[in-house]
Design brief:
The chain is of the alpha+beta class. The protein is built from six helices and eight strands, in the order H-E-H-E-E-E-H-E-E-H-E-H-E-H. Strand 2 and strand 3 form a beta hairpin.
Length: 239
């Protein structure tokens, strides 16, 4: 009986040690952190539709996965998309409201967003790390007024590129806002609608904006969010 008890005791200690041995491995697994922006329409009287969607930023180890799902945007044109913020790092960016229409032309142009949103920072095109804002590799919406964008980049490379562009600053996702831009070239805009340099205002006109926030545990994101809200699967074009 004593020998039997000793055997059980030995097995118990062995099992305990084995369990302890697995703890560091479990802790070594990268934890996913998610940031999300719910994108709401801007300038719907110009676009003729309500551009809505979601931007997701998933961080796992050195991977930064960026997903943007949009609907209600102008079809068959490229849509510039970025996050904006204040390069001084002294405050968080917010999306504009009607009071940001400084010239009272009924349109919130890109320049009028600067007091509350700051400047254009990171482009969501084919190569976000290159930080090349005017590069024409942004997603094009399908004829169903939708698009889906996804890129995975090195978080370290993105942070290094950001720090080079904005010295002393960090990504600070929850201090940024996401903008979607663009209406067809043929869209008639008043001369009061401003843009950057010689870039046409039709290209930079904001059509949607959303504040980036850290998603808490259990927050529905991506397709889960759409299904929770509408009970339907997400569809759309990709680029």
């Amino acid at each position: 009986m004593r020998r039997h008890l000793l055997s059980l005791s030995t097995l118990g200690i062995t099992g305990l040690l084995a369990g302890v041995g697995t703890i560091p491995m479990a802790l070594a697994q990268p934890t996913e952190v998610i940031y999300r922006a719910e994108l709401s329409p801007l300038n719907p009287t110009i676009t003729g539709t309500d551009a809505t969607g979601e931007a997701l930023f998933r961080i796992s180890g050195d991977d930064l996965n960026i997903q943007i799902t949009m609907s209600g945007v102008s079809p068959l044109i490229e849509h510039w998309q970025h996050f904006h913020g204040f390069p001084e790092g002294d405050r968080a960016a917010t999306c504009p409201t009607a009071k940001e229409d400084a010239n009272h032309d009924g349109i919130i142009d890109l320049i009028e967003t600067e007091p509350v949103s700051g400047t254009t920072m990171v482009p969501f095109n084919n190569d976000p790390v290159a930080m090349d804002i005017p590069q024409n590799s942004y997603p094009t919406a399908g004829d169903d007024n939708r698009y889906f964008y996804e890129r995975t980049v090195s978080l370290k490379a993105m942070e290094a590129a950001f720090a080079k562009q904005f010295p002393g600053q960090q990504l600070d996702l929850d201090h940024r806002v996401v903008y979607i831009h663009g209406v067809p070239e043929a869209t008639i805009l008043p001369d009061s609608v401003a843009s950057l340099g010689d870039i046409p205002a039709q290209v930079t006109l904001p059509v949607a904006c959303g504040k980036i926030e850290k998603a808490g545990p259990g927050t529905p994101v991506g397709g889960e969010l759409e299904q929770a809200a509408r009970g339907t699967p997400v569809g759309g074009s990709s680029s």
